[in-house]
Specification:
By secondary structure, the chain is α+β, with helices and mostly antiparallel strands. It has a domain of 177 residues: v583 fold (Alpha-Beta Complex). Helices cover 40% and strands 21% of the residues. It has 14 helices and 16 strands. The chain has a 4-stranded antiparallel sheet. It has a 4-stranded antiparallel sheet with strand order 10-9-8-12, sandwiched between helices. It has a 3-stranded mixed sheet with strand order 3-2-4, covered by helices on one side. Helix 3 packs across helix 4 and helix 5 crosses helix 7. The protein is globular, with a radius of gyration of 20 Å. It starts with a helix and ends with a helix.
Length: 419
């Protein structure tokens, strides 16, 4: 079998995972108990691996806050000194199948959503979305109020969620996406329909299980129209963790930013990152006095949902978001058409009624990206340099990442073939 045949066979295997996989939310458990190889003194962050002294302020605050929350340090200053000294280990969340939204840092005691792909058995993880408060760890803030919220999530909210999900026998994420197809979600930056559909199942279960502070749990859950985002992030990770075990595949398997660099992972190269300077997410600022100078480069792992064909790749499914951030309906269509031209398949379980019933493009092939000399557009929220959300919009993914990945794939294929 020659290299081309090996690549085609590998891509068929990866696309089977992507198209036939059944990511199913099965539980909520402490990260240190369920994430493979996570250590008690480890904290995970978003995007590619980065040196500690290069980490942007919001992520530095979140990492330090997470360390204090877990008792790894007595205060923020000591926490960061321990990070610099290597006493607190930090690493990219996607290397462990754990997606970190925006500036979020995940420590061992924090509860994470556990999604299992029932096709492969692989699991993905993500902390539950914290809700609509502006100042949360996810956006690079930490103080006594946030610490109290983290404790309530750990001790009350997340155990209740786990009980509800187990009572349901698990929640299949594709069923939620299929049920809400045509309701205007692109399921990265806009997911009120998916959140409501999922929350209805959870609330129904919560009325039947014995959990503390049930009314407050239901109130917080019902008020969060972005709750499904972090579930979907864990769901995508359950697929990509299996994909990254397939040698020779050229299909996109990871995407995330750390505020300095944006990076991709490719199925055939496992956890290796291919990076470029992080572009800024532009479109709409929450405060009209803010400018491009106030925000960081692309930060967060929520864009991993786009690897599954959501967000900017399926912009036509959520044209209201594109309009809100300054685009047009035709621009939404162009973004999806671009992703479709670079993809090896499409999800047929969630057709878009106003796009001739087409499915969501999935399986970006780095060979096509380089050969056609065009890259897809990703949606996302921008982060202020001092923490907090600056706005929402989109960014063109840098070609440099894809060329680097393709060159590395080619080099590895030649080395393997020479052995």
């Amino acid at each position: 079998m020659n290299i081309r045949e090996k690549i085609e066979q590998a891509n068929q295997e990866v696309m089977k995972i992507m198209l036939e996989g059944q990511p199913t939310w099965v539980d909520v458990q402490p990260a240190g108990d369920v994430i493979p190889n996570m250590q008690k003194n480890m904290i995970l962050y978003a995007g590619p691996v980065i040196a500690a002294d290069q980490i942007v302020k919001p992520v530095r605050v979140a990492i330090s806050g997470a360390a204090v929350h877990d008792g790894l340090a007595k205060d923020m200053q000591e926490a960061w000194q321990k990070v610099l000294a290597g006493e607190i280990v930090i690493d990219s969340g996607q290397n462990y199948g754990c997606a970190c939204g925006a500036a979020m840092a995940v420590s061992a005691s924090m509860p994470v959503i556990v999604v299992r792909d029932t096709l492969t058995g692989a699991c993905g993880f993500c902390t539950p979305h914290p809700g609509g408060k502006r100042e949360v760890l996810r956006w690079g803030y930490y103080d006594d109020t946030i610490e109290a919220d983290l404790c309530w999530f750990r001790d009350v909210f997340c155990p209740a969620l786990g009980a509800a999900v187990r009572h349901q026998g698990g929640i299949n994420l594709k069923e939620i996406l299929a049920r809400t197809a045509g309701m205007g979600d692109e399921n990265h930056t806009r997911q009120p329909a998916s959140s409501m559909a999922c929350n209805m199942l959870l609330i129904s279960a919560l009325t039947e299980v014995d959990v503390p502070q049930r009314d407050e749990v239901i109130r917080v859950l019902a008020a969060n129209d972005r709750f499904f985002l972090h579930i979907m992030m864990a769901g995508v990770q359950s697929c990509t963790m299996a994909m990254k075990q397939v040698p020779y595949s050229t299909v996109l398997a990871g995407l995330g930013g750390n505020g300095v660099e944006l990076g991709i992972q490719v199925s055939g190269m496992g956890n290796q990152w291919f990076t470029a300077p992080a572009p800024k997410i532009l479109g709409m600022f929450i405060n009209p006095t803010w400018t491009e100078d106030d925000i960081l480069g692309f930060l967060g792992d929520s864009c991993v949902t786009e690897v599954y064909g959501l967000g900017g790749f399926s912009a036509i499914a959520g044209p209201a978001y594109v309009l809100m951030t300054g685009g047009t309906f035709e621009e939404a269509r162009r973004r999806s058409d671009c992703a479709r031209s670079l993809s090896l398949g499409e999800h047929r379980f969630a057709p878009v009624p106003w796009d001739e019933g087409k499915g969501l493009p999935v399986g970006i092939d780095v060979r096509r990206v380089v050969a056609l000399n065009k890259t897809p557009i990703s949606h996302g929220g921008s982060t202020l340099k001092d923490g907090g959300q600056g706005g929402s919009g989109c960014a063109v993914l840098p070609m440099e990442m894809f060329k680097g990945a393709l060159a590395a794939l080619g080099q590895k294929a030649m080395e393997d073939n020479a052995e």
